[in-house]
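Notes from hallway chat w/ T.B., transcribed later so I don't forget. T.B. wanted the structure written out for a chain they're using in a teaching module, and asked if we could keep both sequence and structure tokens in one place. Agreed to drop them here.
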Amino acid sequence: MKAVLCLFLLAGVSYSHAEETVGEKVGSTAKDAKRGLKKGANRVQEAVCMKGDAKCLAQKAGNRMEEGGSTVKDKAGDVVDSVDKK
């Protein structure tokens, strides 16, 4: 019984991929570009950090957390866009 249920669930997942609209693709690309620019700015800022080592490391860690959060948020939005078209 469990095997049959798993088979149906997997079959449903394989057909749940929907095409993104042009607007959603553009929005996704714009978000990727914005994240890339912010990442580059963070790297430059970290490279020229004149504070103490501990403060620079704390700033670097904060930047990585912010970048990771932005990526997760944007990718979650992309998943919602692709699923809601089903």
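Follow-up for T.B.: The chain has three helices and no strands. Might be a good example for the class.
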